[in-house]
Design brief:
Mannoside_phosphorylase, hydrolase, single chain, Tachylectin-2, Chain A, 362 residues, 7-stranded mixed β-sheet, mainly beta, glycosyltransferase activity
Length: 362
Amino acid sequence: MIKKLFLLAALTFTALCGQAQSWLIGPFSKHNAANPVLSPLGTTTFDCPVRGENVHWEAKDVFNPAAVVRNGKIHLLYRAEDTVGKHNGTSRIGLAISSDGLNFKRMPTPIFYPDNDAMKKYEWEGGVEDPRVVETADGQYVMTYTSYDGEKARLCVATSPDLLSWKKHGRVFSNFIKGGGTDFWSKSGSIVCRRVGSKLIATQINGKYWMYWGDQQQLFIAVSDDLIHWYPFTKPDKSLKAVAEFRPGHFDYRVLEPGPPALITPKGIVLIYNGMNDAKRGDTTLPEGTYAAGQFLFSDREPDRLLDRSKSYFMKPDQPYEINGQVNQVTFVESLVPFKGRWWLYYGTADSKIAVASAPLR
């Protein structure tokens, strides 16, 4: 199943490193001439219902977006930070729309944000972070996101018929007991999907929906009947069962974190993920703390069974806006959509801006 290919030439626009494997999505090329496609904006304001005042809601940083193709256009749901909230600014989610994947028109106010609702205790004042969006067979949108109160990150879920009006459903693991309670650190939910035209549709396997999640040295998996209530795989002692782990000597030694929604392909489930480097025990050629991107291949019959993983990263920081910013040395991939014959991969750069790479759709 795996075949060796020649190493790609080190061109300006290439983001692929190492040897390719036949199941990998790519190769991806960064659109350096257009990047970054979204940057902070200091002119837009929002009447924050919690703070009770007008804030420049996307003035500090914009990064880590979800993407959806709707009505023939790419809709980018992006994390935006203001300059006044504690914990490096309060995060809200904005919406920008593009007909070519490179030039975006923004909505003037956020479409998802902390409010005076039941989720306020989890979302204030850190905010709502890092969305990932999939569709259901009946046309609904399901968004996993991180709520952050300044101390603990919690993976949550919301749904929408149109990407504009959202219903918050709370923490995804609210019914799961871990260590004597339901309230534990969790992030980055990547729901398994199948491509249907330009849509990524959440797909059941063995009668369940599946989601990869986590931001530690291990990667975890959970199942659901309804895309709202999720239950992690556990060991006999009820501790979390890992489906992948860090690798000494590699770029993903410190952290494994899911990227875009996982994709069912003819070879299995491909999960593009983010790895954080340890310069001493990981990849010694990369700076400390570098976030680079790799790919996993899981079984499409047993989604918790790892079949293969990329031998190295396929994208790393190499542009000034990827190397320097709120957090240096970061390319954080989070959304992948099929559009006009290509895969479009949007990613956060240095936790400050948004850029895009693309690859042939095959």
